[in-house]
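QUALITY CONTROL LOG
STEP: pairwise intake check
CHECKER ROLE: data steward
CRITERIA: each record must contain a sequence immediately followed by its structure tokens, with no blank fields

ENTRY 1 OF 2
RESULT FIELD BELOW
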Amino acid sequence: MKEKKASLLLIYTGGTIGMKMDPENGTLCPFDFSQILDEVPELGKFAYKLDAVSFDPIIDSSDIEPAIWQELADIVSRKYNDYDGFVILHGTDTMAYSASALSFMLEGLAKPVIFTGSQLPVGAPRTDGKENLISAVEIAAAKDEDGHARVPEVCIFFNNRLTRGNRTTKLSSDEFRAFASPNYPPLAEAGISIKYNDSAIRKPSDWNSALEVHEKLDTRVGILKIHPGITLEVVGDILCGSSTRAVILETYGSGNAPSKQWFLDIIRKAAGSKILLNVTQCFSGSVNMDIYANGKALKESGVISGGDLTTESALAKLFHLMGNLGDNKEVKRLLTENLRGEM
């Protein structure tokens, strides 16, 4: 019996990877993404069915908003039964935010949704775009011996590494190694061959369950980065503002913040009506508010530990939970649970 060839949908939102140099004026312009095989002919060597759709207009990643995540989730939902996997080409600046958001919006995912992009345009002589795209496509098409997707997760592939989307953060603006997953190992690494870290990959409890898409998002979230010299006025404006339902506190080390009375008073006041989530400013590591007195003071004041959540993932998780739950108490409870491998 002839094996059915894998079918993949490439979704181009925008970003450097889809640009090419205009020979007349030297500016970068988007190319017609339906002609992707002309730009990356190596893709034609795969025995896959490759289709491509492009946002119109394309979106600079600095302009990414939740409405774009909803549109991406809708495309995946509508095309879910038609393709074996999805590769989303996206600008690097907000890729970790988008991958985190999609991980929560797509529940029961049994197929790969892989974000990739590049630091140099795909037409540039030293581009990283071709290798990123080719490997992302190969991984999205990969099946295990039972015919199931090898990596049924929302992921980011960049610079030879596949990482869980909601565990990834942007590391550099000018190196090919643009992303890192500081608190979770790579799901796969691409060298001469692609080596999968199967023990780290999440699998669905039921491969035949229907995909459930959660498009409702509540974006009333603020972020307060703790810093020396922070003032009562700044803290009060962010924590007690009427337009926020939740605030992410980016704290020092293992979850510490000032112990001044005015600061704790504002925390307690805000925690009475808002959701306060503690994540660390450190590149790696976790919040543990039981280690130091300053951390314990936050915990006793009503702040919730975000564990080892990245800021991108914390934001996406809050958007998702708040969009689907009106009860802050239930949101707080679920913030401490590992929903999509994010913590």
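ENTRY 2 OF 2
RESULT FIELD BELOW
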Amino acid sequence: LCEIGGHKEQGNALMMEAHIDTLGAMVCDINSNGCLKLSPVGGMNPNNAEAENCKVYTREGKLYTGTFQLCDASIHVNGKFNETNRSYNDMEVVLDENVKTREDTLALGIMPGDFVCFDPRTTITESGYIKSRFLDDKLSAAILLGLAKAVQAGEITLGRKVTLLFTVYEEVGHGASCLPSDTKEVLSVDMGCVGDGLDCTEHMVSICAKDSVGPYDYELTTKLVELAKEYELDYAVDVYPHYTSDADASLKSGYDIRHGLIGPGVYASHNYERSHTDGMMNTYHLLKAFVTQ
């Protein structure tokens, strides 16, 4: 939580939020063969993480590596390989250690409750595409940091008090549940959805009109659309059918605020995601226009 600027006008403070927690998992059991059974943290879809390298962080501060695999993963052995469900009950972390039994793994200091983090595999192409796990929402966190840097350098003059909040619980539903008392508007800067039935692409800034919780504030959303038009940004207005945000968490906590949601278009959410620098810049310029009003 950091304040990046104030203004003589009081009582109309803006909070902009991005979340820096990622999808992941937690050890919930150790199988008889020494491999790890996982429970998801956030919406980590197991069939999207098959064969992904990962790291296991123990309570004792130790670090181990492994791979998230289908149980009995050799296709030349498992005759039903392609028919098997990719669920957490059918998958396991194969540790890069010489373990053969549950007791071997316990002896390493690994136990239920240890966190498992998946390799993001971040790649930026010469054509400007950004490919990585967890662009939701480290991509927008980076945009907010860029905005703060521009304010510090004197390149942006804020029109009112603006506070940035980087939450670590959005993926499990209670990220922005506490706000400064003078906050009147909350703008969640998250990922924009890309997929069938939506207009947004990876090159755009997405303005969300409604998600699974309900509509976003009409006046605030309309203002964002007007600014996108005025500054000739590449944007889309969409309804997200399976989505919640930090701004939703603020409302559920009882705050009487105007709330909105924007973000760069991200394809294959909660999978190996992809966006583009165009989408980042369109989002940045919309934020810049918004905070200077």
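INTAKE CHECK: passed for both entries
DESCRIPTIVE NOTE, ENTRY 2: The chain has five helices and 17 strands.
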